[in-house]
Design brief:
The chain is built from 13 helices and 14 strands. The strands form 4 sheets. It has a 7-stranded parallel β-sheet with strand order 3-2-1-7-8-10-12, sandwiched between helices. A 3-stranded antiparallel β-sheet has the order 5-4-6. It has a two-stranded antiparallel ribbon with strand order 9-11. A hairpin with a 2-residue loop joins strand 13 and strand 14. Helix 1 packs parallel to helix 3 and helix 1 crosses helix 13. The longest helix has 14 residues. Required for morphogenesis under gluconeogenic growth conditions. This is Putative gluconeogenesis factor. InterPro entries: CofD (IPR002882), CofD-like_dom_sf (IPR038136), Gluconeogen_factor (IPR010119).
Amino acid sequence: MSKPKIVVIGGGTGIPVVLKALRKEHVDLTAIVTVADDGGSSGRIRSAVNIAPPGDLRNVLIAMSDMPKFNEEILQYRFDESDGEFAGHPLGNLIIAAVAEMQGSTYRAIQTLAKFFHIDGKIYPSSDMTLTLHAVFKDGHEVSGESHIAGYKGQIDHVYLTETSTGEDPIASRNVVKSIMEADTIVLGPGSLFTSILPNIVIPEICEALWKTSARIVYVCNIMTQRGETEHFTDADHVRVLHEHLGTNIIDTVLVNSEKVPKEYMNSNKFDEYLVQVDHDFEALTAQHVNIISNNFLNLRDGGAFHDGEAVAKEIVTIANRV
């Protein structure tokens, strides 16, 4: 049997969990990764070297590689806060930045490192440019810069991207549109709605490809609401916002977690951005003409609520094999 072609779109810490599980399956796997981060190590590097930020790409490279655990720990090693200019930088970010500078492109750097780490699959930054994410709030206020958005006390109406240096609309990296058009199944998330998923799909070429593709589109809904982004959101609200940004209802299937997060489990000091568990509104989901797969996708660890990558991957592969 030929491998079903699965494209996963997103960023942050959500999609690596699913990608790590999917790479063990009999699938042709592609990751399209957001490059709008301007905070922390990634923000400092993009300002200094003028490249697309490496942080989310680093996590995806590791997730899709079968490298030994010690090699992963080397790439994820974060310099101590007392280490001057190196403070807070993961070593993997510096390696990506160095290769990007050598080759004049983050896109080319990731292709080179994918071969270096023997990755069975493809990884593409959503754009090869340095991008700025803008959030327009319901009250008309606008915040520029991904790292600043959660700090404004208001409800986000919509987000959009510009190329940082020119203010122009961003252009998708090569092969991104081709991957979407050739996919059997496209997976959005899991991840922060406004700052990890939407920064990919509001790129005009990617948005248009999602309109045109014949692939089945699956959204993995978040388990917890997120401070400054999705406070008081139901699962149907997440889907509604995606459709509003896309301009049409294109999501075919939604995966929602049915397992309850135990009260007082969440470590609010460690995961202060997460608020409460996302409520279900199956009636509103059905009104958006999506299929609902409700199951136990919960993985409780380290005081946080995460997706069980194996359980999510199993559902995605089942969907892909039906296409």
